[in-house]
Amino acid sequence: MDNFECFDTIRFGLILINRGCEISKINSAARDLLGCTSEFGIFENTCHHLLFQSSSPCPDCPCLNKDGPVLPEKSFKIKRNGYDTFIKIRYSFIEEKILLTLYDMTREISLLRDSDLARKELNAKNIILKQKHRESEKQLGYFQNIFNLLPDLLVDIDSSFRITKCNSAVLEVLENEKPEMCYEIMGHNNVCEQCPVETGDLEHSPGIKKSHRINDRFYTEEFSMFSPGKGGMLIFRDTTRQIQLIEQIREQSEILTKKNKLLSGLADLEIKMHKEDDPKVVLEHFLDIFLPLYQSDAAAVIISDIRLASIWFTIQRGLKDEEMNALSRSFISREVQSFGHREIPRKDLPWEDTFQFNLLGTHDRLIGIIIIKGFGSADSQEITKPFKETLGAFIHNRLLMRQLEEKANTDPLTGLYNRGYIDKAIAEEEIKLLTYNIPFSVVMADVNGLKKANDIYGHEIGDQLILTVSKRLKESIRVSDVVARTGGDEFIILLTGTADAGAQKFIERLSNKYFKDLFIDIGTQDKLQVSVSLGAAGTDKFAPQALIREADRLMYEAKNVHYSRNARYR
Which of 261, 394, 456, 564 would you label with 502, given CA atoms 20 to 30 Å apart? Predict the structure, then answer.
């Protein structure tokens, strides 16, 4: 085929002019782009009249400024079918003539208006195109110069898919590796799947487009026929920027959708909290809302009771009972409870990928933990925060209500818990023993000489004796332990997570530290010694139902030892 035939088959607008601005050749793509419907008249055969409807050449026309700076490109706007069409012209010197390459920039201008990032990328691409243009001018040959000036990948193939010619853009993308077959450009060893020219007949292929990925960039391949049965041209246009912009728009749309769902779910949860008093029902509703947002199908919720290292209730989704028990045991362990903000250790987690967040009350007290299967998305913290704060306040208020209810279970004189509360707490520890194999112990304490103090010094001194013992007992225990007054001079102490040996060390510490050489003033210059008999029993030595009996027996043995050394009052 001759140069003119090639010139007309190129699917980019090309106009060849002489130094007098007269049009020597215009291809069909340029006519379509400019909306030309007929041949030019004698006064219309100039580029400035065709492009700008001007009778005079442009002031910065490269044809007139032979010795001055050359205009690298020019942009203008025309009306086509009632819409604005933006066109950019690039000038290239070909021997004694000038080649005008016309680009339809309407799509790019629209994208640039929508995204500042696209504008920056377009500027970067223009710089690259200018560099390609300068390199291309060094190439020899009339048609090869035109061929190499075009920014897209151009490949001539025969009917057997063999490459007969390609421009410099192909070599640049492939890092100077020249392929022999067209499918090797995409890194394939065979003809591409569903190739429209696989039959070897290119007659019906022009205009067909396919998408490819080459070296992490995206290209749209278009088939252009030269002549029937002789081969054709493949044009690869880099559409990476457009795809990235579309992807950014899609991601932003997904983020907005997720935020709308988040706000809607949060509002729904707050309505549920106003209508529902049962916190377990509220947290079940929370999981129904949150798990789809987090894209997870499994979770565990553990909520603390008013007493530290005790559990009010749990909720499980998608995990077995033994897995939930392992989580609960870990949650009430000293390792987690002592530090408040610690997470469940990885060894106790049922899933390899897990996200945890704590529910906190006043003074950052740990009141619960929620464990979700999977790491979720990068904005997991943003999704979690509003729910975390809302649920934390809700559960904290419910715990305050439970604490008010527990006020009825306190001794009016000492403020310690009464027998009803300690029996309930011991029953809870029995469940923890059976479920998690966590031991506990009971300590019985009896005040020596209370009747003597009441009879001789009066009940006010007797009450002072009881209050002194109560204060020392409260000072000696941990926040997870419970001390209760069960009679006039009797106390029961529940030591959680403590075996018999630990309970024995505890009563030794009481005797040697808290009650050794302890006296109270009796209104004269005399003092009354404070003395307590103690006995302890743990579940590793005795059955849970026998603890109080055994501790009481050991306490009376200690009391007999006391009175063997001190006179018994009546």
Answer: 564
How far apart CA 505 and CA 246 sit, in angstroms, is 71
Torsion angle of alpha carbons 473, 336, 440, 300, nearest 10°?
Answer: 130
pLDDT in tens, 200-240: 544 555 556 777 777 778 887 777 665 555 677 787 888 88
Residues 384, 443, single domain; the answer is: no
Boundaries of domain holding 168: 152-238
Residue 56: CATH number of its domain: 3.30.450.20
* C-alpha to C-alpha distances, 179 to 149, 187, 217, 232, 396, nearest whole angstrom: 20, 9, 18, 17, 70
Q: Give phi and psi for 316, each to the nearest 5.
A: -130, 140
Please indicate, yes or no, whether residues 393 and 328 belong to a single structural domain of this protein.
yes
Any domain includes 140: no
- 233 and 201, same domain (yes or no): yes
In this structure, the answer to whether residues 558 and 427 fall within a common structural domain is yes
Task: Give the pLDDT confidence of 265-286 residue by residue, as tens digits.
Answer: 788 888 888 888 889 999 999 8
CATH of the domain at 255: 3.30.450.40
Number of domains comprising the chain? 4
Phi, psi of 191 (to 5 degrees): -60, 140
Q: Which of 84, 102, 83 is nearest to 33 (CA)?
A: 102
pTM greater than 0.85: no
Residue 115, Ramachandran bin (φ over 0: left; ψ between -120 and 50: alpha; else beta): beta
Sequence-distant contacts of 432-437: CB under 8 A, at least 24 apart: 432/310, 432/332, 432/496, 433/539, 433/544, 435/325, 435/328, 435/329, 436/325, 436/328, 436/329, 436/332
Cβ contacts of 348 within 8 Å, gap of 6 or more: 326, 327, 329, 330
Burial-class residue 518 by CB neighbours within 10 Å (0-12, 13-18, 19+). Answer: middle
Q: Which of 65, 68, 61 is nearest to 47 (CA)?
A: 61
Which three-class secondary structure string do you get for 188-223? CCCCCCCCCCCCCCCCCCCCCEEEEEECCEEEEEEE
309/285 same-domain check:
yes
Separation between Cα atoms, residue 348 and residue 353, nearest integer Å: 12
In a domain, 376, yes or no: yes
